[in-house]
Amino acid sequence: AGLVLCAIVVMTVQHKVVNFTKELNPEKQGSVFDKNFQKIWLESCDEAEKKAVYESAFASYKATTIACIALWLICICGNLTFDWGIPPVIMVTIIWLTSSVSYCIKAMQIEKTIIRK
């Protein structure tokens, strides 16, 4: 119940923030409840906003990588010291690989797009 309540609160706050931003910037498009909201919203952004999104996404990727390395080392040490088992190491590895592989795939797609132009 707490998880559902938190999800409802987050969606409500996000909806209000997006609507307020749309009032301030009428060129903004999209609704929080739309399936393609992120794509529509990004298309309505100017170049400076897109650059800020991309730079913050890369910073988030770097922070996730550092956190995964730290958690992976903690899990390895915990496995050797306290016999936690291998599942924590596998879970952190899956998250880390998902982040890294998705980043690499998107980077290759963007690079192909740039080369074609």
Order of helices and strands: HHHH
- Give the overall shape, derived from the CA principal axes: flat
Portion in helices? over 70%
Note the total helix count.
4
Radius of gyration computed on alpha carbons:
19 Å
Multimeric state: single chain
- Distance between the ends: 50 Å
Can you summarize this structure?
The chain has 117 residues and is mainly α. Helices cover 82% and strands 0% of the residues. It starts with a helix and ends with a helix.
Structure, described:
- By secondary structure, this protein is an all-alpha fold.
- 82% of the residues lie in helices and 0% in strands.
- It is built from 4 helices and no strands.
- Helix 3 packs antiparallel against helix 4.
Write out key terms for the chains shown.
mainly alpha, single chain, 0% strand, 117 residues, 4 helices, flat
